[in-house]
Amino acid sequence: MNVKDKNGILKISIDENDKCVYHKALMEEEYILLNFESDILIPFAKGDYIDTEFGRFYIVHLEKPKFSKAGGYTYDQKFHSEWERWRNRILFYNRQSGFEKSWKMTHRPEVFLDIIVDNIMKAGFGEYAYAVDPELSEMKFIEFDSVNIIDGLTLIAEA
Q1: CA dist., res. 122 & res. 149, Å (int)
Q2: Average pLDDT along the chain
């Protein structure tokens, strides 16, 4: 497993072992846990990633390695799916006066989803599309108060 920095430069190659885990809980979390030992301290950073058969996974939270009695370090580093990085981004509404993190609106689902997709793109997470069931045309009131993108999606889904 090759760990690369955000610029695509190889940081370290890790051999997979039986302690490495792929975990997916629908609509909750998705990550790959790499468990390994190293003689040296590895300077992992948020944004480091691995490419797997399940897609690209990123470091979202840094885990501190444990110092072993043998003189090395034991790592249990999680690499999260791309969508989990959205938890670290506040959902903004772009008005003429600037970006607002607390806002409320009454509109149809596609207007809210346009705002979500715009936030994801502006955060540098790529381009996404959505589809809305044509029967969901009713306007809804939703209030956003400094929520991240994932929580914003949850508010839209609940409405």
Answers
A1: 12
A2: 91
